[in-house]
Amino acid sequence: MTPKAIDKPAIDMLGRAPLATLAEAVSMMLSRIPACRLDFEEIPPDEASGRVTARDIISPEDIPPHPRATMDGYAVRARDTFGAMESLPSYFEIAGEVAMGEKPDRPVAAGICHKIATGGFMPPGADAVVMLEHTVEADRRMIEVTQPVAAGGNVIQAGEDTRRGDVLVPAGHRLRPADIGLLAGVGIVSAPVRRRARIGIISTGDEIVPHTETPPPGKMRDINGLNIAALARLSGAEPRFHGIAPDDETALRAILERAISESDLVVLSGGSSVGSRDAAARVIDSFGPPGIIVHGIAMKPGKPVIIAFAGYKPVFGLPGHPAAVSVAFNAVVCPAIDKISGFADVRLPRILHARLARSVNSAAGRRDFIRMKVERMDEPPGFSAIPLLGKSGAISTIARAGGYVVIAEDRQGIAEGETVEVEIFD
Fold first, then answer.
1. How far is CA 24 from CA 27, 327, 338, 357, 360, in A?
2. Percent of the chain at pLDDT above 90?
3. Which long-range contacts (CB under 8 A, 24 or more apart) does 111-116 make?
4. Which of 128, 129, 261, 277 has the most CB atoms lying inside 10 A of its own CB?
5. C-alpha span between 86 and 148 (Å, rounded)
6. 46 DSSP assignment
7. Cβ contact 416:399 at 8 Å
8. Average pLDDT, whole number, for the chain?
9. H or E segment at 99?
10. Pairing between β-strand 191-194 and β-strand 40-43 as defined by DSSP bridges
């Protein structure tokens, strides 16, 4: 299938394309990524956390399979408790006790009750549970019920949680611990999931050396390669590092070609700035059509992001600054991973409300991601957000931050004392 044509961004006399908003950039990108074509596999549920389901998972049985008590108390016929009150209680003979893990076979009749614990199977004939707090022990064989209970009260019915044939987990859902427990609860031993999306990672720049080496003067260790790999794993993808590419178009082209052929998407760090000395943008664009569709996003940090396509495979050029890499990856690359992986839900951020410790400014028309250190405080909302205003090249600000606050394009800052939403890092 031939990729559809796309208009290239207009370029000014200095070689600069107009900045897209973050929403525009992500929308343009997602519109070009086809529906998920990743293979799927069947794996045990205890290995499936974080994986995306390849098809609907159907319940093979009812949960619970039999009515169960949801409170400690006594299993009774509800109609026998009508009119009960403290001044005129109803009396019940204790005919037995429901043992946990066993299905009782002795029926409940008029004026008869069975002692039962939360989770116990309801005995035949009983349709409600009187809470322990609403009873008084008259003697070892008799109780007084001081408050009526309706039919079905304090009981979960057979199939009330889920019924045989129900969709337990829909296709395109990223499995969470609670989902794994649900699958185990109905005896599912094999979960159909998509394979993890493969991300090719390339660090670029003559000044970069492997993180295992001691850099000579003028060089620096590769921070971004490991940072991106860790971010990829957290996003549910499989990172594949293709090494450090020098600022040489021939060498970079060879590495990028291999990465594209072996991956579902590729991320380069460094070399995304607009300028005549940067080889990365030219090489990335040459793998079209369509090549580069976005070069520059109105966001900080992360402004010089490149979004390109080699056929239908996304290729991203991220800035060289580590803090900008982390922000740009979450903002731009994660949505691509979700689409490629067949993830049909919305990736919801973890939000913490906090009081801003000092004012921060922002430029109108630009989305700012302000790193925040979060501390507990005694007054509401219970947390304080302290801006970490280091430059985007300072990796320590990301390491010290608990999350970030987003300042939208239509705002020019946030005042000290405002309650803000901090998006928490994983």
1. 5, 17, 17, 32, 25
2. 80
3. 111/80, 112/76, 113/74, 113/75, 113/76, 113/143, 114/74, 114/75, 115/73, 115/74, 115/75, 116/69, 116/72, 116/73, 116/74, 116/75
4. 129
5. 10
6. G
7. no
8. 91
9. none
10. antiparallel
- What is the token pair recorded at 234? 């957290």
Quickly count: other Cβ atoms within 10 Å of residue 130's Cβ: 28
Report the candidate in 296, 418, 392 with the shortest Cα–Cα distance to residue 22: 296
Please give the pLDDT value at position 15. Answer: 53
What SS3 class is residue 11? coil
- CB-based contact 298:368 (threshold 8 Å): no
Give phi and psi for 233, each to the nearest 5.
Answer: -65, -45
- Tell me the range of 33-42, 206-215, 332-341 where mean pLDDT is highest: 332-341
Q: Give per-residue pLDDT as tens, 2-26.
A: 444 445 555 554 455 579 999 999 9
pLDDT at 393: 57
The single residue listed with the structure tokens 């009782």 is: 104
Helix (H, G, I), strand (E, B) or coil at 286: coil
Count of beta carbons in the 10 Å neighbourhood of residue 183: 21
Q: What is the DSSP string of 135-176?
A: EEEEETTEEEE-S---TTTTEEPTTSSB-TT-EEE-TT-B--
Neighbour-count burial for 190-217, b at 16+ CB within 10 Å, e otherwise: ebbbbebbbbbbbbbbeebbeeeeeeee
> Which tokens hold the place of 361?
């400014």
Q: Which domains are delineated in the chain? A: 22-38+196-341 (3.40.980.10), 40-58+167-194 (3.90.105.10), 68-156 (2.170.190.11), 351-424 (2.40.340.10)
Instruction: Give the pLDDT confidence of 267-313 residue by residue, as tens digits.
Output: 999 865 544 346 788 899 999 889 999 999 999 999 999 999 999 99
238, amino acid identity = E
How far apart (Å, rounded) are the C-alpha atoms in residues 26 and 20?
9
H helices present in 316-419, as ranges: 322-328, 334-341, 395-400
d(CA 341, CA 68) in angstroms, rounded, equals 39
Q: Which two tokens stand for residue 105?
A: 């076979």
pTM reported for the whole predicted model? 0.83
- 336 DSSP assignment: H
pLDDT of residue 209: 93
